[in-house]
Design a protein that fits this description.
Elements lengths: L7 H12 L4 E3 L5 E2 L2 E7 L4 H14 L3 E4 L14 E6 L6 E5 L4 E5 L4 H9 L3 E2 L11 H7 L6 H4 L2 H4 E7 L5 E2 L7 H5 L8 E8 L1 E2 L3 E9 L2 H13 L6 E6 L10 E9 L1 H15 L4 E3 L16 E7 L4 H12 L5 E4 L4 E6 L5 H17 L3 E7 L2 H4 L12 H10 L14
Parallel strand pairs: 3-5, 4-5
Antiparallel strand pairs: 1-3, 2-3, 6-7, 7-11, 8-12, 9-10, 9-11, 13-15, 13-16, 14-15, 14-18, 17-19, 17-20, 18-19
Helix pairs in contact: 1-2, 8-10, 10-11
Length: about 425
């Protein structure tokens, strides 16, 4: 059933009953998701309110798209339609904290900035230094977003130990027989359920940090230096590279940077040793470079995400450069083979398709990986293969059929490969 098939009054009454006065309304022109208009907006106050909204939408056959701060609603494949935009921004707070057990249970709508402040009082942190600091925890989990610290601590899939999810028919679940629900939810783009809370690993805040920064000239040099760092006993917490490309707005040089964390003596020794290993004017700095932990793309740019074997990543960078006809801005976790690419919004469909094909061909020939069109104008996304030709993992497809057989949760979207 589409939203036109139901009574607007009935929908508003039901959503208001679930969310409370002033927290449900019929959508206006500004209430769109990546160019797709929605019918209604609902802001439940807690997990039971989320479940109540989903029970109603299941009865009426309405589609639902969850959102938090909305920082990444234009990532990935846009929904084909969205009847109800379910905003979890009122579900906030640290629900349980166990510093000794290194875990915290957090409501999904909690902004990362607020979470950092709450954990700081306990000298703890969630090691997810993502590039969208205004995001909520739920949005970070939905996109499996991670920053430089993924080198040591992994992505949300590695940090989330338990979740509570509101399923399509309106029940609240913490597990699904035969599936690792926390791991599948991370990167699901809201297609499996609406996360209402998550239990995550937290870590002590390190006593000292230092960055070793070295200018580089070519992607090949980045690869060689990264391999030297990874093979050494120095154990950096993160290794990032920034290749501004020919379209960069500043004259800054390309750089490789490594982070070291721990007690002061440990950090000083490791950082100085890394600077000697890297040579070439490498310096030890108390603060990160300005680009650290930020995406290379701006609000209007086309954004790609590439991942593969770390030793082969920069063959992909060269392939992208050749397909584009010039160096393109690339930045990311080179020690793990993950990076993001920025292209101007004037990129033509043929040029973009050629770049995606070139990257995917090189990755396939060099041990596997992927190249996803993370964000682009709708007219571009309609003309290229966003995720590539690879099918969804069988376990993900089975779980989708189990949890959302009518495809009412984020219809048209695809989980992260």
């Amino acid at each position: 059933m589409s939203r036109e098939a139901g009574s607007a009054v009935t929908v508003i009454e039901a959503l208001t009953e679930a969310c409370g006065p002033d927290h449900a309304w019929e959508a206006g022109p500004a209430d769109t998701v990546d160019g797709v208009p929605v019918g209604w907006v609902a802001e439940p106050a807690d997990a039971e309110g989320v479940a109540a909204v989903l029970r109603f939408t299941a009865t009426e056959g309405l589609s639902v798209l969850a959102t938090g701060a909305g920082t990444k609603l234009d990532w990935g494949v846009p929904p084909t339609h969205a009847d109800v935009l379910l905003d979890v921004g009122r579900l906030t707070g640290v629900l349980a904290l166990d510093p000794a057990g290194h875990t915290a249970t957090i409501a999904a709508g909690t902004p990362l900035r607020a979470l950092r402040a709450a954990l700081l009082r306990e000298r703890r942190r969630l090691p997810l230094d993502v590039g969208s600091p205004a995001a909520t925890l739920g949005g970070v989990l939905a996109t499996n977003e991670a920053g430089p610290l993924r080198h040591r601590f992994g992505t949300p899939r590695d940090l989330v130990t338990a979740v509570q999810v509101a399923l399509d028919e309106g029940s609240l679940a913490r597990s699904v027989d035969g599936f690792d629900l926390p791991r599948h939810v991370c990167g699901s783009y809201g297609t499996l359920g609406v996360v209402t809370e998550a239990t995550v690993r937290i870590e002590p805040i390190p006593a000292s940090r230092a960055w070793v920064i070295r200018p580089v000239s070519t992607p090949r040099e980045v690869q060689q230096l990264t391999e030297a760092l990874v093979a050494s006993p120095l154990d950096p917490a993160a290794i990032e590279a920034d290749l501004p490309g020919s379209t960069a707005t500043s004259a800054r040089p390309a750089e490789l940077a490594a982070l070291f964390e721990g007690d002061e003596a440990y950090v000083t020794h490791r950082a100085e040793s890394a600077a000697k290993l890297l040579g070439g004017g490498a310096t030890v700095e108390p603060l990160p470079p300005a680009w650290w932990g930020r995406y290379p793309f701006g609000a209007d740019d086309v954004a790609l995400k590439i991942w593969g074997r770390p030793t082969e990543l920069f063959a992909v960078v060269y392939a992208l450069r050749d397909a584009a006809g010039a160096p393109v801005p690339v930045r990311g976790s080179v020690g793990l083979g993950v990076a993001h690419v920025a292209l101007p919004d004037t990129t033509t469909p043929d040029r973009l398709d050629g770049m995606l094909t070139a990257a995917r061909t090189v990755l396939m020939a060099r041990g596997g990986g992927g190249c996803t069109l993370l964000r682009a104008p709708l007219d571009l996304r309609e003309l290229v293969e966003t995720h590539g030709p690879e099918p969804l993992p069988a376990s993900t497809a089975r779980l989708k059929l189990t949890l959302d057989p009518e495809d009412r949760l984020a219809p048209g979207r695809l989980p992260e490969p």
